[in-house]
């Protein structure tokens, strides 16, 4: 008998409009899209208080300035072509 259990693959939704550089906050989905950081790693950074997040009802909003600062503080990538 064939296995009928469905496996779900996470696929980020496509943004209808690109996020504005003037945005003051991003949803989790938008923050994932604009940074390329995975959902688990993003939530890890929030738990570690490296990124500031606010709650509005059941929605989590990432403070844009905090997200930019987090990216800026990451170490530079090493050039491995030397």
Question: Would you give an account of this structure?
Answer:
It is a single chain. The chain has a domain at 25-73. Helices cover 33% and strands 15% of the residues. The protein contains three helices and three strands, in the order E-H-H-E-E-H. It has helices spanning 28-35, 39-47, 64-73, and strands at residues 25-27, 53-56, 59-63. The chain has a three-stranded antiparallel beta sheet with strand order 1-3-2. The longest helix has 10 residues, at 64-73. The chain is globular and about 45 Å long. The chain starts with 24 loop residues before the first strand and ends in a 9-residue tail after the last helix. The model has no long low-confidence stretch (mean pLDDT 85).
Which H/E pattern describes the elements? EHHEEH
Fraction in helix:
25-40%
Number of helices: 3
Task: Decide which structural class fits the backbone.
Answer: alpha+beta
Sum this structure up briefly.
By secondary structure, the chain is of the alpha+beta class. It has helices at residues 28-35, 39-47, 64-73, and strands at 25-27, 53-56, 59-63. The model has no long low-confidence stretch (mean pLDDT 85).
């Amino acid at each position: 008998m064939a296995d009928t259990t469905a496996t779900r693959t996470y696929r980020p939704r496509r943004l209808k409009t690109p996020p504005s550089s003037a945005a003051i906050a991003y949803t989790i989905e938008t923050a994932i899209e604009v940074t390329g950081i995975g959902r688990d790693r993003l939530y890890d950074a929030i738990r570690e208080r490296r990124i500031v997040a606010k709650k509005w009802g059941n929605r989590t909003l990432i403070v844009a300035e905090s997200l930019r600062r987090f990216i800026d503080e990451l170490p530079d990538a090493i050039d491995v072509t030397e």
